Amino acid sequence: MSWEGILKGEEEYSFYLGQIEKIEKMLERLYDDIEKSAIEMNKETGLPIEQARNIIKNIQKGTIDEIEKTLEEFKQKLERSF
What we know:
By secondary structure, the chain is mainly alpha-helical. Helix content is about 90%, strand content about 0%. It has helices at about 5-45, 50-60, 60-80.
């Protein structure tokens, strides 16, 4: 393998690793927001937090699924990059 190929592979690896970190942070923020919203819903309605959390997760299901799918795609691309 040439030096150019090695450098290209390293750049690609770094790119995917950076994207994975960003996506993981996004997912973490989403779950934090869901938790905060569940607590607020509990305060406002008296609904148990677990039930409120499940309601909000169901509302956000499409977003969560899409983010998790993208995360898995980038993890696979990362594996193939080295």
